Task: inverse folding
């Protein structure tokens, strides 16, 4: 795909509001809230192989269009810079960028307001097909228990539990992505993952990880709780990248199953890591295994120090800064980790703190060259 010369507006919003067309920069303060300044992204168009799917489109794209690739992400003022970079990376590498539809979940009481955030997305990506949904925090607030890191206690962090209820009923399949990722491959490849049998989600699995550490000694010493894994061989998987069958999700009442474990957690303290353990309790051992290249996670370090990490061995399609450290924060503080420079080319934030203009991945000319160097593996 390549940037087009003439933009076309194909935006679908929950909030209908007027905003000047053709604005190159988005004001740094909207409704009195400082959310920075973003430059307009290049216009990415479908390649020839996509022409038959998009030839009849005008200025409106329905989320019910069966040719679409559906991507769900949260949208909030704190992680906005990461979300914008993530969207940019998806479009930049997609073979059919106009066929990608984004479903943004915004918190009802975000300091910037969902309306402000949707305007900013609309102005940064004028031709993006997307819809913004309001997530009512009172849906989950009473189910959240304290976590090892405060950010993991945010109600929006649990929005993935409710995608089957929030998204339009005609959306029967979605890719869920965290906001601290960049995609460096065609998202269609991930979309085409087959969920075999009755499996509800697909994600990269890490069966070498110490699975027991994701739950407390109180859980493992209980005479009944560990039996929830009976008949399964549970493996750790990261919920920041998932392919989800929403039809099976709704039919199986998986929202309720996850909430049940959250209710037990409030009484028994069986885990410490926020929204991840309930997913492990419900799905671990019954996940469609996706190639590890689709979640090179942990680049943000651990949940306490956020120290630098290197890539896992093997090819890379998606980089994920899970953990405490976020690339935009470390870059602005002039203490970046080596891999943070791979995130930087997708950053559309205009008022960046002065950094060296030569951004060649610390001497490496590309991601492939970096991953081939053994010192980074």
Result:
């Amino acid at each position: 795909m390549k940037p087009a010369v003439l933009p076309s507006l194909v935006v679908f919003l929950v909030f209908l509001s007027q905003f000047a067309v053709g604005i190159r920069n988005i004001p740094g303060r909207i409704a009195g809230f400082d959310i920075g300044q973003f430059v307009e992204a290049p216009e990415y168009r479908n390649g020839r192989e996509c022409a038959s799917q998009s030839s009849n489109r005008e200025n409106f794209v329905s989320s019910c269009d069966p040719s679409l690739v559906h991507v769900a992400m949260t949208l909030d003022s704190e992680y906005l810079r990461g979300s914008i970079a993530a969207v940019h990376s998806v479009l930049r590498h997609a073979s059919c960028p106009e066929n990608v539809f984004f479903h943004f979940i915004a918190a009802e009481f975000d300091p910037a307001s969902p309306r402000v955030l949707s305007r900013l997305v609309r102005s940064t990506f004028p031709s993006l097909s997307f819809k913004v949904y309001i997530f009512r925090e009172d849906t989950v607030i009473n189910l959240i228990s304290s976590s090892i890191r405060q950010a993991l206690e945010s109600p929006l962090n649990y929005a993935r539990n409710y995608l089957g209820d929030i998204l339009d009923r005609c959306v029967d399949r979605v890719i869920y992505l965290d906001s601290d990722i960049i995609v460096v491959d065609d998202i269609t490849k991930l979309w085409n993952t087959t969920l075999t049998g009755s499996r509800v989600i697909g994600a990269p699995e890490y069966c070498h990880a110490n699975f027991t550490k994701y739950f407390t000694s109180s859980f493992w010493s209980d005479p009944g709780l560990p039996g929830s894994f009976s008949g399964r061989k549970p493996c750790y998987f990261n919920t920041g990248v998932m392919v989800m069958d929403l039809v099976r999700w709704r039919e199986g009442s998986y929202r309720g199953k996850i909430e049940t474990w959250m209710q037990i957690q409030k009484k028994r303290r069986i885990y410490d890591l926020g929204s991840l353990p309930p997913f492990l309790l419900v799905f671990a051992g019954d996940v469609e295994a996706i190639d590890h290249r689709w979640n090179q996670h942990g680049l943000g370090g651990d949940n306490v120090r956020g120290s630098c990490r290197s890539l896992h061995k093997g090819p890379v399609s998606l980089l994920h800064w899970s953990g405490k450290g976020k690339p935009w924060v470390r870059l602005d503080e002039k203490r970046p980790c080596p891999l943070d420079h791979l995130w930087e080319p997708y950053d559309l934030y205009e008022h960046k703190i002065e950094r060296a203009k030569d951004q060649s991945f610390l001497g490496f000319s590309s991601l492939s060259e970096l991953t081939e160097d053994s010192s980074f593996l």
The first strand starts at residue 29 and ends at 30.
